């Protein structure tokens, strides 16, 4: 395989790996499982190319540099190998952490560290490609063969993981491992960007629901838990899937958002809903999602612990954990589109 095509194939594979990884990080819906499978296939394809790429990079160090920083290629190879190794160990070895940082998070951090080197790689090795050179049929076949090798290794690896079975056999399609399902408040306590508010005085706490014309409603925890009100108290089973690499099946109790809005005679058609936390954290949802969203006050039949969002948190089935807003104190309806927020929270 020619030197330049080794670089171009590696660049394409890594770019695809970053895109599918980012998409998988944001998706908790099983319909998007294929994206994570492609992510794994690309990873194994990179391993197939990396040995050849590393040999080329090491060989190039023996020659004059000619002004090109070839040592960056070595760093890129090391980072790629690190990210891929962590991913393989996480997939097969079950849940683990180093100094409180999960293997999944380390895999994500290593992938993010690759970004600047990919930018350099693209500039250094693709800017001089001739069109005729880059469209050679045999090189396209080589790229396809690389993907075929990656797919084959992925199939073999997945079958082995489940046949042995390894500790990673129970992982979810997102790569997350199960942690304390159906044990109520005993599942892990984590927050996006480490939000850690002070304990909330439940007697003083009120949930504000603000309509888009400014009209405001206030509810206490007793109101929400159906003490003297007509709010239907519901129970659902939903899976909290954290981007840190764990998931937990739980029974949640609370009020469905659509029931709450109907009880307050709020017309939510065509509106979006912004859930606001006491920490300032917010996430926005479209009206088409309202029937599936719960404002939970209990898990496993017990009142939520403070670390899990007491007195009120959002339960959003099919969404990743960062969309499950905790410590909610305000719900605001707006006419703004649901996409008007960062894909990943910045708060």
Descriptive account of the structure:
The chain has 2 domains: 3-178, no CATH class; 184-334, Sulfite Oxidase, Chain A, domain 2. The strands form 3 sheets. Strands 3, 6, 7, 10, 11 and 12 form a 6-stranded mixed beta sheet that branches. Strands 5-4-13-8-9 form a 5-stranded mixed beta sheet. A two-stranded antiparallel sheet has the order 1-2. The radius of gyration is 24 Å and the shape is elongated. α2 runs antiparallel to α3, α2 (33-60) packs across α6 (137-163) and α3 runs antiparallel to α4. The model has no long low-confidence stretch (mean pLDDT 85). It is built from 8 helices and 13 strands. By secondary structure, it is α+β, with helices and mostly antiparallel strands. The chain has helices at 3-26, 33-60, 71-93, 103-126, 131-134, 137-163, 221-224, 257-263; strands at residues 97-98, 101-102, 177-178, 207-210, 216-219, 234-242, 246-256, 272-277, 282-286, 294-299, 302-303, 313-315, 328-334.
